[in-house]
Amino acid sequence: MRYLCLIYDEEKKLGAMSKSESDAFLGEYFAFTEDIKKSGHYLGGEALQPVNTATSVRVRSGKMSTTDGPFAETKEQLGGYYLIEAKDLNDALQVASRIPSAKFGTVEVRPIQDFS
Amino acid sequence: MSGIGNSGDAASDVRGVIDTVYRTESRRVLATLIRLLGDFDRAEEALHEAFSAAVEQWPRDGVPASPRAWLVSAGRFRAIDALRRRTRFDASLAALASELEGQTASPVEWIGEETLEDDRLRLIFTCCHPALQPDAQVALTLREVCGLTTEEIARAFLTAPRTVAQRIVRAKAKIRDARIPYQIPGRTELPDRLDAVLRVVYLVFNEGYSASSGATLTRHDLSGEAIRLGRLLVELLAEPEALGLLALMLLQESRRAARTSPAGELVLLDAQDRSAWDRGLIADGVALVERALGSGPPGPYALQAAIAAVHADAADGAATDWAQIVGLYDVLLRADASPVVELNRAAAVTMRDGPAAGLALIDALLARGELADYQFAHSARADCCRRLGRVDEARTSYTKALELARQEPERRFLERRLRELE
């Protein structure tokens, strides 16, 4: 079964990291990604640019409106994701708990809807 | 079955047997059907079908040698049959039916004693999965493991049946859709997962032991269910903390008759008639505490049970070994620090060293703010002040406690204390 792991971090905290701290953090991410590629869990994943680059789009009565910023202002912001293949929720939670950001932020694990 | 002449009696005998089998076996059969059919709702339907079949067939064919195995087979067969019939409308069910049919070859394999007991544990761990809301864990456990009806659960928790039903429906949907596995957690996950199970059991016990609001102080049925669950856990998985929790519940339960007066007034530990304590429960509880403490570093439940055992051992409040109780609270604080544990320790220090020592600790705790809205912090402070003759402060603190108290017997107790100050 496929699960999407949505990674929420406090951008402020990440921004306040020193060069060596953020290098180490990135290193953890590279190692983790390698790890779940080897274990067969990895289907995909990306990091996102900060929320100040976000634009939200809505179409109402055929008219498009765009606003600067994310869908919702929150303390922690969506910063990236992994799409994984896992046996069940326990397996998915084990993988999610090893995502480096789980130590500081929150990882939301959502099963993928299967329409087949 | 032989002879038509006595069939009326025989049939009602069989009905009696079926009722008994339902009470003793239906939860085990359900636990196994959930594993075999992979779905809570399908398993419940199958359980219902299996008992309908028993009502139909047992009076005619006799009670099978192993009713449990018979019910599992009948339930499984009827569930697969129902899926087959529905395949006419939904083709995807055909694959599922074949899969369910093919997965297990020999009946012995899915109804062996060990597998069955494992199924009961699987059910408990799944109902108490941390990915489910705490309220839903409690409702699902009482419904599926204990077999309470939605109405019974609602009554016990003073909520609407509809709310309870919704919680259960949502929890089952999450188990299915997010694929929460029907599994006993492995060694590494076990401590955390067991904690979640024990928390649910203790919550059910406490809800029964001291209802958080309302007129009755005890709702015995829930405590009874929690103790049954605790016994089941100990039987299936004798982990030290499971032993500790069962011990704690039994020791608290042993005082039930003594903690309310005939008029329904709350009686504090100190003033309880100890001859009304249930010695049988105390003996069971103490034996379990010893087992729990004998197997590795003690956890929070075993330590709380040990404290309750020291109380149970004393002839009266004055004869209680308060030094040992303070010592146990010190260990408990290291295992599981919380302001409430600190408050309880302060109360024990009051008994050991006098009200001035206790008051100093309680005031320091209250100054930290976490217990500002905790009724028992204010009533404990009031007690110390009263014993020190500081009447005005005692009055202020009893009044504050009274504002926070929600339970009638507790309110009456505090009002009585306030009157006694005049």
Can you walk through the features of this model?
The complex is a heterodimer of chains A (116) and B (422). Chain A has 116 residues and is of the alpha+beta class. Chain A has one domain (2-48, 75-111): Dimeric alpha+beta barrel (Alpha-Beta Plaits). Chain A has three helices and six strands. The longest helix of chain A is centred in the first third of the chain and has 20 residues, at 19-38. The radius of gyration of chain A is 16 Å and the shape is flat. Among the domains of chain B are: 7-111; 251-337, no CATH class. Helix content of chain B is 72%, strand content 0%. Chain B has 20 helices and no strands. Chain B has helices at residues 7-37, 40-61, 67-86, 92-102, 107-111, 113-127, 134-145, 150-156, 161-177, 190-209, 220-236, 240-253, 279-293, 300-313, 322-335, 339-353, 355-367, 375-387, 391-404, 408-421. Residues 1-5 of chain B have low confidence and may be disordered. Chain A binds chain B through residues 1, 87-91, 93, 109, 111, and chain B through 131, 177-181, 183, 185, 189.
What's the topology here?
The complex is a heterodimer of chains A (116) and B (422).
Chain A: E1 2-9, H1 11-15, H2 19-38, E2 42-47, E3 55-60, E4 63-68, E5 77-85, H3 89-97, E6 106-111
Antiparallel strand pairs in A: 1-5, 1-6, 2-5, 3-4
Chain B: H1 7-37, H2 40-61, H3 67-86, H4 92-102, H5 107-111, H6 113-127, H7 134-145, H8 150-156, H9 161-177, H10 190-209, H11 220-236, H12 240-253, H13 279-293, H14 300-313, H15 322-335, H16 339-353, H17 355-367, H18 375-387, H19 391-404, H20 408-421
Helix pairs in contact in B: 1-2, 1-3, 1-6, 2-3, 3-4, 6-7, 7-9, 7-10, 8-9, 10-11, 10-12, 11-12, 12-13, 12-14, 13-14, 14-15, 15-16, 16-17, 17-18, 18-19, 19-20
